[in-house]
Write a structure and sequence with these properties.
With 135 residues, this protein is α+β, with helices and mostly antiparallel strands. Helices cover 35% and strands 38% of the residues. It contains 2 helices and 8 strands; from the N terminus they run αββαββββββ.
């Protein structure tokens, strides 16, 4: 009771809060502003992660299609080299001391993916992929 009368003396206005309790209007506005700001930050972060995901897939789908191309770029601490010709694709990823590698262990694998033969080889600090498609 004393806090409410002190609030009135300070010129605060009140509104109905949760469960019918009276709250100063200032705290309601601050709460709504905080919720809005949090929602905005989450939406912006989500949009950024979707854009990064799309960029990664851009490199993946391009390997199956055509023209002659050579690319070199960095993916975090790793160096990536991509070469493609019509019906062929090669990718080599080198990560110094295996730091940043997205694969684990050492292995070799050969398989078919549709009309293409795929060879993959992984070492601690290097990953190679070669795809050759039948015409």
């Amino acid at each position: 009771m004393i806090a409410q009368s002190a609030g009135r003396a300070a010129g605060l206005r009140y509104c109905a809060g949760p469960a019918g309790k009276r709250q100063p209007i200032f705290s309601v506005v601050m709460m709504k502003t905080a919720v809005l700001a949090t929602s905005l930050v989450m939406l912006l972060g989500f949009g950024h992660s979707v854009a990064a995901h799309d960029d990664h897939h851009h490199h993946e789908w391009r390997r199956w299609w055509g023209d002659e191309r050579k690319e070199e770029f960095r993916d975090g601490p790793c160096e990536v080299k991509i070469e493609s010709k019509r019906g062929e694709y090669k990718r080599e990823v080198k990560c110094k001391d295996g730091i940043g590698a997205r694969w684990r262990g050492e292995w070799k694998e050969e398989f078919r993916d549709g009309r293409c033969r795929v060879k993959q080889e992984a070492k601690r600090d290097e990953f190679k992929e070669e795809v050759k498609c039948d015409d």
